[in-house]
Specification:
There is one protein chain. This protein has 13 helices and 10 strands. The chain is α/β, with parallel strands linked by helices and 357 residues long. Strand 3, helix 6 and strand 4 form a beta-alpha-beta unit. Helix 3 crosses helix 8. The structure holds 5-amino-5-deoxy-1-O-phosphono-D-mannitol. The site of 5-amino-5-deoxy-1-O-phosphono-D-mannitol has 16 residues, from helix 4 and helix 11. The site of 5-amino-5-deoxy-1-O-phosphono-D-mannitol (M6R) has 16 residues, from helix 4 and helix 11.
Length: 357
């Protein structure tokens, strides 16, 4: 039930700090250490390459998951859109492990890949919010998101839950493989949950940004580099699916290779700056679009901020920034849709789970 909330989407955005805490708890053993099923860690360890398969927002979580697994566990990862993989399978490694990410566990495109790889005799792990869902039943292993039912068509708390579970999977696998991880993930996820609380409390500021940037525009761009690029494409998807504003996410460095031609006087450009290594270069990209008339909105992380920034998110570990930086985009999309009188929870032409290929 959505209780006093006007929409499920807003309720589900608000639930993210509690979901984060629930996940930390669910994946801790009785000594307070992160733990997952031994068979899963073993399968991860034996894989020479991991293939993440997903659609939509779950695919965007997979892009972040690749970074987490490669950086912590040091296993190469490829991320594929399910509907592409099924018709155009890449050359596979000798010992692949497949990870399916799906909130509903019912996405037909992902299931088609699962059926195909099971026929080839490969092992599969499904990360899903729905215990007993098709993708969960048909895979060898399952990890649950513990996000609680997600009703709004636009996925919010499932995205952050997927990234948190992928971080835990990467971390536990890293330890299993004796890879050094120089931070305590339980502690860092606790910091994330606290930061999330502050962010879901920033609704007025997000509503104001939505009003200022998105009330009348026909299009909007999201730019970022590294982790911020992946969050940018998720922010663009959120905005387009519920507000019907044409939105695209781009890697900051790609702008000059074509997209910058679309920038006109007043075009909203949302830029994320949460990564120290690319802070200067993304700010350079913002200058390039601003010089061509764009209306930039920089959202940065504490410690990397500058005077021109519109909003500063609390500091979290640099590998975990998507868990927090996505929240302003979720809220901005929500308010943009609201201001434009769109049906936030049930956008046109869309279903919550896409059970046809
Ligand atoms: O249930 P799934 O995670 O497999 O669904 C995948 C996509 O259909 C889903 O993420 C979709 O893109 C959402 N509407 C995005 O908000």
């Amino acid at each position: 039930e959505k209780g006093t909330y006007p929409h499920y989407m807003l309720k589900e955005i608000d639930e993210q700090p509690a979901v984060m805490r629930k996940i930390i708890q669910a994946y801790q053993d009785d000594k307070g250490k992160l733990a997952i099923d031994y068979n899963i860690t073993e399968a991860m360890n034996q894989a020479d390459r991991i293939y993440i398969i997903a659609a939509g927002t779950s695919y965007h979580a997979g892009l972040v998951g690749k970074q987490l697994i490669e950086k912590m566990a040091k296993i190469p990862v490829e991320v594929h859109i399910a509907s592409e993989f099924v018709y155009n399978m890449p050359l596979l490694s000798e010992n692949p492990l497949f990870i399916f990410i799906s909130q509903s566990g019912e996405t037909a495109d992902s299931r088609a890949v699962l059926v195909a790889v099971k026929e080839l005799g490969y092992k599969a792990l499904t990360i899903t919010n729905v215990a007993g869902s098709t993708l969960s039943r048909e895979a060898d292993y399952t990890l649950l998101l513990h996000a609680g039912p997600e009703i709004a068509v636009a996925s919010t708390k499932a995205y952050t839950a997927q990234i948190a579970v992928l971080a835990i999977l990467a971390n536990v696998t890293a330890k299993f493989r004796n890879q050094e991880v120089e931070f305590d993930l339980v502690q860092e996820l606790g910091i994330v949950a606290t930061a999330m609380e502050a962010l879901v409390d920033s609704k007025e500021q997000m509503e104001e940004i939505a009003r200022e940037y998105l009330s009348v525009t026909r299009n909007a761009f999201f730019i970022g580099r590294a982790m911020d690029y992946f969050v940018g494409i998720e922010g663009a998807l959120k905005l387009k699916e519920i507000s019907y504003i044409q939105a695209e996410g781009f890697a900051g460095g790609e702008l000059k290779h074509g997209t910058i031609a679309l920038i006109e006087e007043g075009t909203p450009v949302f830029a994320l700056a949460t990564q120290e290594s690319v802070n200067l270069s993304i700010r350079g990209n913002v200058k390039e679009v601003a010089a061509r008339g764009a209306h930039p909105c920089i959202i940065s992380m504490k410690g990397l901020q500058s005077e021109e920034d519109r909003f500063v998110i609390p500091e979290v570990h640099e590998l975990l920034t998507p868990l927090v930086s996505v929240i302003p985009f979720q809220l901005i999309a929500y308010y943009a849709a609201l201001h434009r009188d769109c049906d936030v929870d049930k956008p046109r032409n869309l279903a919550k789970s896409v059970t046809v290929e």
